[in-house]
Amino acid sequence: MPTLNLSTNVPADSIVSSDILKDASKAVSRIIGKPEQYVMIVLKDSVPMSFGGTEEPAAYGEVISIGGLGPSVNKELSEALSEILESKLSVPPSRFYIKFYDVQRSFFGWNGSTF
């Protein structure tokens, strides 16, 4: 159930999506401590985006999870995702924001119900 929604202004033709999806899925699973079979990664490329008044490569992410998040986990996950974005998308860590949401089970749907 951990989900990473990742948006970037990097053009689609500059991205190898499968590498980013694979690396991010493994990082989210490992760091949050949830089975990878439940991790979802959504990657949106070519999103019109300005950061600091420029359209240089940038990204925005949101991590949603039922538990597993907290100050130390969020910091570790932010570092890991920043490394992935820098190596795979050439987005410097200073041009990436991430928001963490720790949600209640009843606020997360799956398999026609809620957790």
UniProtKB/TrEMBL annotation:
InterPro entries: Macrophage_inhib_fac (IPR001398), Tautomerase/MIF_sf (IPR014347). It is an enzyme of class 5 (isomerase). It is found in: Secreted. It catalyses: 3-phenylpyruvate = enol-phenylpyruvate; L-dopachrome = 5,6-dihydroxyindole-2-carboxylate. One of its GO terms (cellular component) is extracellular space. Its EC number is 5.3.2.1, 5.3.3.12. Keywords: Cytokine, Isomerase, Secreted. It comes from the Eukaryota. GO terms for molecular function: cytokine activity; dopachrome isomerase activity; phenylpyruvate tautomerase activity. Belongs to the MIF family. This is L-dopachrome isomerase. It comes from Selaginella moellendorffii (Spikemoss).
